Amino acid sequence: MAVVLPIPEYAENGGVNKIDPKELDAGTLFVLKSQGSWLHCGYHLTTAIVAPALLSLPFTFTLLGWIGGMICLSTAALITFYSYNLLSLVLEHHAMLGKRQLRFRDMAHDILGPGWGMYFVGPLQLGLCYGAVVASTLLGGQSLKFIYLLSRPNGGMQLYQFIIICGGLTLVMAQLPSFHSLRHINLVSLILCLVYCACTTAGSIHIGHSNKAPVKDYSITGVGINRIFGIFNAISIIATTYGNGIIPEIQATIAPPTTGKMLKGLLLCYSVVISTFFSVAISGYWAFGNQAQPSVLQNFMLDRMPLLPKWFLLITYIFTFVQVSAVSLTYLQPTNVVLEKRFSDPNKGEFSIRNVVPRLISRSLSVIIATTLAAMLPFFGDIMALFGAFGCIPLDFILPMVFYNVTFKPSRKSIIFWGNTIIALVSTVLSLIGAVASVRQMVLDAKTYRLFANM
């Protein structure tokens, strides 16, 4: 699946992969340490992409059908792999010229101009990543609630209480100083996502073959305009599921020289992506048809009664909860970079009192705010569809094509130039329509919205 692209020749020099310390702030010095291997890179990539949000893929098939769902899922896989590889090539190019870019906003600043990094890409990435932290905290709370209901079907604890518990775990783990510090956690995350996806797939197949299975109806839900907007809403959800938004920050954790290492990490990541995304989507939609819920795990319980052995569901929910905590930590890193830059002193030691105290306070407040938002807005899934349209599609489907074309200037007669241009233009249209569809869905669901709802 490797994508091989022609790259213009450039001379290597003594500045390859070397960064002038004067250009670094405390955020890049302390958070984005370049000490990892390609394997570590693969762990980070997998955690950033293969998250419990993939459990919504059977639901997207209810809006797209078998053919539409498979086409969208496959196309998104190919384009995102290609896109992330393009970003990696651009980053390697600048590193070999002696200017290693460590953040997405650095790429936009150097390639498109200062305004793009400061006013568009930077805020867009931070909003998307922090939104992912909020969504992950909500998913973690929902997983804990499912575990609770397995033992006490009529229990009185509310969803927001479980969200607070999940946020407390994230608050403690968020004190790990650097992105590189997460490498072992993200290895565990990779293993866990394989396990809970295997459990989800096996559970769907078991229920689908049992007498408890719903009548299989694969007709597309919605009629008329509702069906059309549902299609674009599903595309936004799939884009969000494949979304990353932190490729430069992940590549920044690789020890120089970086050439070729990101591609190896992507190959490891996408071997997990293909095995998990397609197995969950196909088995979940096959078993439940157009009754698939926004999270297929919801289909495993009927009227608060489990359709599978409790121990099996317990394992699935626990692994989902633990893995989503790793996802939260991964997407906190761009925020941590900004906080370290603002409150830490690069001239002092990373573990000096001057830097440890501001780090503890700022990161704790960041997690507390995200946890509060997750508890207040348990309908955050609708908001994430909007983030997918406004955030994931621009960062993962549009900007990589633009960065490559501007950096390497391929011939206007070449397939690469026109392929990148067409992908960027189509993605722009889908982003705008998807945003409208997401806002419309939020308006339709507004009647059921209630702060701190026990969903």
UniProtKB/TrEMBL annotation:
The chain crosses the membrane at residues 63-91, 111-139, 159-176, 188-208, 228-247, 267-288, 308-332, 360-377, 383-403, 415-437. It is found in: Membrane. Residues 35-443 form the Amino acid transporter transmembrane domain. InterPro entries: AA_transpt_TM (IPR013057). Keywords: Amino-acid transport, Membrane, Transmembrane, Transmembrane helix, Transport. Its main location: membrane. One of its GO terms (biological process) is amino acid transport. It holds the Pfam family Aa_trans. The keyword Transmembrane applies. One of its GO terms (cellular component) is membrane. This is Amino acid transporter transmembrane domain-containing protein. The lineage of its organism: Eukaryota, Viridiplantae, Streptophyta, Embryophyta, Tracheophyta.
